[in-house]
Amino acid sequence: MDSLSPPQEPYRNWVELPRDVTASILWKLGAIEILTSAQLVCSTWRSICKDPSMWRSIDMHNLGDLWDMDYDLGRMCRHAVDRSSGGLVDVNIEYFGTDDLLQYIADRNPHIECNEEALAIAEHMPHLRYLQIFGNKLTNEGLQAILDGCPHLESLDLRQCFNVNMDGHLGKRCIERIKDLRHPYDPTDDYPFDAEIADVGSSEEDYPSGFSEIDFLSDDDDYYEFSGGSDMSDFEHLYFD
């Protein structure tokens, strides 16, 4: 009877896959699965999961009933943002995003571009004459929409809107049309609020408990709990070299 048994498939060691192949597979899991499961498997996967290139896009939307989840999604998202090391270009926090979380993301990722506000202004404020969008993430596309949709605009403050390029035709159009124009790199001395560019790194002031988000799952830590009170130490034995 043994001679009729099907041959056993050869053993496959997933850890021996090329790093880029493993990264491509893990990236498809999503932020929550990576932070709560995949990075706990072995030191190789953990190293890949901590690579900033894995966090250029963070999608945490459509998570079902948030009230039944054990995880602190806001805290988890901040940790994912920190791992991007300023390289985040796309993020989706639908259903749980807050103003504070959006500000946290914007402060730490200067490369994120967003034209939603600019497009809304262009569509709904055709009689606008004065506009200050200090430090906005709009791009040339958003600025073009504002110029097209707000023909009566006389004053425009674009200071610290660093995604806007005023060279070429768009800058010339602004200069010709706008009587009072402030460019992205103009001085901010007369700005009535704190115009200091936020530090892109985490600070202890952000975390009263004395640690920063960037410390989560550092090289010296074995685990970190994202849940409100559950202990993830049960997974500690999964780390190995």
Automatic annotation (TrEMBL):
Domain F-box: 11-58
Domain of life, source organism: Eukaryota
Organism listed in the record: Hevea brasiliensis (Para rubber tree)
One Pfam family this sequence matches: F-box-like
PANTHER family linked to this entry: F-BOX DOMAIN CONTAINING PROTEIN, EXPRESSED, F-BOX_LRR-REPEAT PROTEIN 21-RELATED
InterPro entries: F-box-like_dom_sf (IPR036047), F-box_dom (IPR001810), Leu-rich_rpt (IPR001611), LRR_dom_sf (IPR032675)
Protein name (record): F-box domain-containing protein
